[in-house]
Amino acid sequence: MARARELLGADAALPVRLARPGAGYVVVAEILGAVSASRLAGAPGADPVTDHLDPPLPVVGVHEPFTVAAQRLSDATGPVVLARDGYAIALVDATDFDDAPG
């Protein structure tokens, strides 16, 4: 729990993935949910992070038309997972999609 709080820092939320040995790319289907600072604030230190998950963050594909993604994210706030070929490649903010043309 302490490590999760440290990693989260001031970020609004971060995705939590299925535990796998070793490093490597994160498969979007293995993202279990998201963790937020507010959710972890009162959590006992011995609790597993997975006991305090919020729903998964929204996902946008790099090949998805910008206007389609922006429309789908119109009510979203905070981080969005950017994916390519089924793998999470970055976190962007939902406000990055606010200026969609059309």
What is the straight-line distance between the termini? Answer: 44 Å
Could you give the order of the helices and strands? HEEEHEHEE
**Rg over CA atoms:** 15 Å
The proportion of residues in beta strands is 25-35%
Q: How many DSSP E strands?
A: 6
Shape: globular
- Identify low-pLDDT runs: none
Helix content: 10-25%
Structural class: alpha+beta
Report on the architecture of this protein.
It is a single chain. This protein has 102 residues and is α+β, with helices and mostly antiparallel strands. It has a domain at 31-40 and 48-101. Helices cover 18% and strands 28% of the residues. It is built from 3 helices and 6 strands, in the order αβββαβαββ. It has helices at residues 2-8, 37-40, 66-72, and strands at residues 13-17, 26-27, 31-36, 59-61, 79-84, 87-93. The protein has a 4-stranded mixed beta sheet, with no helix packed on it. Helix 3 links the parallel strand 4 (59-61) and strand 5 (79-84). The chain is globular. The mean pLDDT is 88.
How is the topology of this model organized?
Elements: H1 2-8, E1 13-17, E2 26-27, E3 31-36, H2 37-40, E4 59-61, H3 66-72, E5 79-84, E6 87-93
Parallel strand pairs: 4-5
Antiparallel strand pairs: 1-3, 2-6, 5-6
